[in-house]
Design a protein that fits this description.
The structure is a homodimer of 111-residue chains. The first copy, chain A, is elongated. Chain A has 111 residues and is an alpha+beta fold. In chain A, 66% of the residues lie in helices and 13% in strands. Chain A is built from 6 helices and 3 strands, in the order H-H-E-H-H-E-E-H-H. In chain A, helix 1 packs antiparallel against helix 4, helix 2 crosses helix 4 and helix 3 crosses helix 4. In chain A, a hairpin with a 2-residue loop joins strand 2 and strand 3. In chain A, strands 1-3-2 form a 3-stranded antiparallel β-sheet. Chain A has one domain: Arc Repressor Mutant, subunit A, CATH 1.10.10.10. At the A-B interface, helix 1, helix 2, helix 5 and helix 6 of A face helix 1, helix 2, helix 5 and helix 6 of B. Chain A binds a DNA duplex (30 and 30 nucleotides) through helix 3 and helix 4.
Chain lengths: 111, 111
DNA sequence: TCCATATTTCCACTATTATGGAAATATTGG
DNA sequence: CCAATATTTCCATAATAGTGGAAATATGGA
């Protein structure tokens, strides 16, 4: 069931620190950030952050890769794309006037 | 703080029944559905559903309007638009190659 | 006014989630 | 091998969210 994934992603994002982590990583781009820097940036103890990174990672929203002593986390752009598609997919059953302004707003916010 | 609203919307959507309610109302379109029909469709007791509708409504994702004995709920398309914008807004700081495929996927899922 | 219908509010109980101290694991350099 | 650094896992406690029975409120019709 596809909605299980969407649900886990929404749950993962539905928490202040995790939403901040995700947005930080989205901003950081493909290079990502090490866990320690995220912890400092958000002022969260490393073990607490670790649990939160794990939740985001299990939901597929971020990915971690060890690089030396650090673990570098990056946003998974495909996942957020999939989530947006899931939220939108039944939005315009023949009524393009409903969804066109939504896409236009997203488009202009992005590029 | 704009993220408070986004957080309440993500929390509202991060629950099986509420996500189902929201998607049902998105599909139902501008005419919406009465609370009772939603309760039957999702097989949830009316008082439980009422609490869930309230959470979605407080987050601004749906709106209820009394019509006779029923209360008709409709999806708030502006709210979901705003949430998508919030999740996307810092996604491409000069790197259009990151966000373009995301928007393209959303576009094709929608219209 | 009285009754049936539709939905909500109140409230207590249960379940899930968040948090961070302490200890464990992994890596690099000396 | 040992010490330092980076991060995670384990675990117990605290906080938040979900659930539905029972009663309350709102509306429309006889």
């Amino acid at each position: 069931m596809e909605s299980k994934l969407a649900l886990s992603q929404l749950s993962a994002l539905a928490q202040e620190n995790r939403l901040a982590v995700f947005r930080l990583l989205v901003k950081a781009g493909p290079d990502g950030l090490p866990a320690g820097e995220i912890a400092v940036a958000l002022d969260v103890p490393p073990n607490t952050l670790s649990a939160q990174l794990n939740i985001l990672s299990n939901a597929g929203l971020i990915e971690g890769a060890r690089q030396g002593r650090s673990i570098i986390y990056t946003a998974n752009y495909d996942a957020i794309s999939g989530l947006i598609v899931f939220l939108m997919e039944d939005c315009c059953q023949g009524r393009a006037e409903i969804c066109t302004p939504i896409m236009a707003a997203a488009q202009s916010a992005c590029c």
